[in-house]
Specification:
With 651 residues, this protein is α+β, with helices and mostly antiparallel strands. Helices cover 39% and strands 20% of the residues. Strands 1, 2, 3, 4, 5, 6, 7, 8 and 9 form a nine-stranded mixed beta sheet that branches. It has a five-stranded mixed beta sheet with strand order 10-11-14-12-13, with helices on both faces. The longest helix has 34 residues, at 383-416. It is globular and about 90 Å long. The structure holds 3-[3-(1H-pyrrolo[2,3-b]pyridin-5-yl)phenyl]propanoic acid (0RA).
Length: 651
């Protein structure tokens, strides 16, 4: 810390200095207050906290390279080529005699960052600083290259210095490079629940995002843990423009240009990039001080408001939209958008359920104002692209109206014909959704067997034929023209799309019953994708299941035995070491008679069902996107990289 801040500390000695006297104890008493949790998320938060300090140094223009290394002994090192934390001792005040570096590592800096000028922006969810990392570590090694000298200091057991900071020699190499390196070993007694093992994937993802958000900054990751060695370096000359291109890589861009603008005003900064793809989904990603704001917030609101207004104004001015026409809706304009809204501000307020929503109201007007000006300019300068955006929004608006009409038609049909159920549905007699189940069965012949096997009081059967349509590429209105889809929607009974209401579902178990082969796997993925996109509350409520028909059969004497999967087969072999009979691999549901299907797969008393989680449905959706989307390269890449993964093998 500079001499300047030393004077300040003396001048307003007060409440914040009382914390100094308490040291780091509060952090060890209530770690969750400082790092969110003591699980894996909290463990990784230690890394983010240290990296954020180096990123701040980079943002102030003093550093262009950050290294993050996972060492063999379980510790993590973060180093940078910044100015180095100041090492000179405080001449007076509460920290008299201590080096600035020692203070940085042992004093709780509630809220803000420790620096003086150039440290206006504080990163980190809690913005608590590196002293918290020290408090929660078994050991911290600090190395500072500054003023031509290399300095070192060590802390143990939650931040206790083992001595004063000392000069260990000259900085190596010529050119007197400066920099800071912090190596910490997380305290296993703090992270007892989920352990102290860092997850490379988690670290890589975060570092890549940081590299995208800080244009030009080189972030080098190295895993030195035995058996997991790898090195990855991220550096993006285009910053968030590269981020947008990266996100649109597996999609078909509507045009190749990426709109980009930056601005700064009274300590607030924004950096925004956007592009559209030919898909139908809205991908607006907000960040505040490098933190992902998945719940959105003021920056995203300001952007959306301005985007809607700018595109409508452009369309009206150019006569693409007539005076008498209705305005394009925000959701129509945002269809297929990929945008990064990265803002920086000195006192971010994180709100919402998961503290991932930016609450600072001033950010809304700032982003809105700048977007109104700069995006309007961009559209004027890029009429070809602007026209495509308007055309796409108009198509989206038409599709929205068509989808609504189609939805209403389906609903009317349901209301008019009383039950109005599709012919193919063999409904159950119970009217109580709690005890009612619907089996969605692939193929008519398997449907017949299932019909014989069911309990007609509580089990309904809906056979669907072969492939329904590709839900990834079809809009809702087109989907609702497909008989298999309307039958599904009508049978389930809660509507479809945005208006889907799980409380109106006629069954509380929607069970997908498909073969264990390639076609079965495909139809399962299609159905999960459909549920995920068009009936998500159904998945969230835990109403969607996958039936588990057995994979193997064998015989003991005259008795036929069914085994669910390889695990069950191996267990069986352990229990029956003398079993000599062959195992049949059951290819299709059609190979079982109704009694077999009932006992192995359908009867509540003997079956096992797999409940589908939102994560699994999302995964199916992602798989579908890659497999069915337009980008052949991504599809090839996906199949190659996941070829070993059994989950994807049969798709
Ligand atoms: C306070 C003042 C100065 C630098 C830093 C802190 C600093 C902190 C960290 C943490 C990780 N890397 C860092 N690099 C620098 C600037 C002092 C000066 O004027 O030289």
């Amino acid at each position: 810390m500079s001499t300047k801040s030393t004077t300040t500390a003396t001048a307003d000695y007060g409440a914040k200095d009382i914390q100094v006297l308490e040291g780091l104890d509060p952090v060890r008493k209530r770690p969750g207050m400082y790092i969110g949790s003591t699980g894996l998320a909290g463990l990784h938060h230690l890394i983010w906290e240290v990296v954020d300090n180096s990123v701040d140094e980079a943002m102030a223009g003093h550093c262009d390279r950050i290294g993050v290394t996972l060492l063999a002994d379980g510790s993590c090192r973060v180093d940078d080529n910044g100015r180095g934390i100041p090492v000179d001792p405080y001449p007076s005040g509460p920290h008299k005699g201590k080096s600035a570096a020692e203070v940085v590592l042992t004093v709780l800096h509630a809220g803000g960052k420790f620096g003086g000028e150039g440290y206006k922006v504080s990163g980190g969810l809690h913005g608590v600083g590196v002293s918290v990392v020290n408090a929660l570590s078994k050991r911290v090694h600090l190395q500072i290259d500054r003023g031509g000298k290399r300095h070192e200091m060590e802390f143990v057991d939650g931040g206790k210095p083992t001595g004063k900071i000392s000069v260990v020699g000259d900085t190596p190499g010529r050119g007197r490079k400066n920099g800071t390196s912090v190596t910490f070993l997380p305290d296993p007694t703090i992270f007892a629940s989920e352990g102290t093992e860092f997850v490379a994937r988690t670290v890589l993802e975060r570092l890549q995002t940081m590299a995208f958000l800080n244009r030009g900054l080189e972030i080098a990751f190295k895993d030195e843990r035995p058996g997991r060695e790898q090195e990855v370096t991220f550096q993006y000359k285009g910053g968030i423009v590269d981020f947008v291109k990266h996100l649109n890589q597996s999609k078909e861009a509507l045009f190749s240009k990426v709109a980009h603008y930056e601005d700064e005003d009274e300590g607030q900064m924004l950096d925004i990039a956007l592009q559209w793809n030919t898909g139908y989904h809205e991908g607006i990603h907000g960040y505040a001080n490098g933190i992902s704001t998945i719940e959105g917030g003021m920056h995203v609101e300001g952007f959306k408001t301005a985007l809607t207004s700018v595109v409508n104004k452009y369309a009206k001015n150019r006569g693409l939209l007539k005076e008498k026409d209705d305005n394009l809706l925000g959701e129509d304009i945002r269809e297929g958008i990929t945008a990064i809204i990265s803002v920086k501000l000195s006192e971010p307020q994180f709100e919402g359920q998961t503290k991932a929503k930016l609450g600072n109201v001033s950010m809304r007007s700032f982003v809105q104002k700048v977007t109104n000006e700069r995006l309007a300019e961009w559209l004027d300068e890029n009429p070809t692209e602007a026209n495509k955006i308007v055309k796409k929004a108009q198509a989206a608006a038409q599709a929205r109206v068509a989808a609504k009409n189609a939805r209403n038609a389906v609903r009317r049909k349901t209301a008019l014909a009383g039950a109005g159920m599709p012919d193919k549905l063999k409904d159950c007699t119970s009217g109580n959704p709690d005890e009612s189940e619907i089996f969605i069965v692939e193929g008519d012949s398997a449907g017949g067997t299932a019909l014989d096997a069911r309990d007609p009081r509580t089990q309904a059967i809906l056979p669907i034929r072969g492939k329904i349509l590709n839900v990834e590429r079809a809009r809702l209105d087109k989907m609702l023209k497909n008989n298999e889809v309307t039958a599904l929607v009508t049978a389930i009974g809660g509507g479809v799309g945005d208006e889907f209401d799980a409380a109106k579902a006629r069954y509380h178990k929607i069970i997908i019953l498909a073969d264990a082969d390639v076609d079965g796997s495909h139809i399962r993925t299609l159905l999960l994708t459909f549920f995920f996109r068009q009936m998500r509350p159904l998945v969230e409520a835990g109403y969607v299941y996958i039936a588990q028909p057995p994979l193997y059969s064998t015989e003991i004497g005259k008795e036929k035995i069914y085994l669910k999967d390889d695990l069950a087969k191996n267990r069986f072999l352990e229990e029956h070491p003398n079993h000599k009979k062959e195992f049949q691999r059951l290819k299709g549901l059609g190979e079982m008679d109704w009694e077999e299907l009932r006992s192995t797969t359908m009867s509540d008393a003997t079956r096992t069902l797999l409940q589908v989680t939102v994560e699994e449905a999302a995964l199916a959706d992602e798989v579908m996107g890659v497999l069915m989307g337009d980008d052949v390269e991504s599809r090839k890449h996906f199949i190659q990289t996941n070829a070993k993964d059994v989950r994807f093998l049969d798709i």
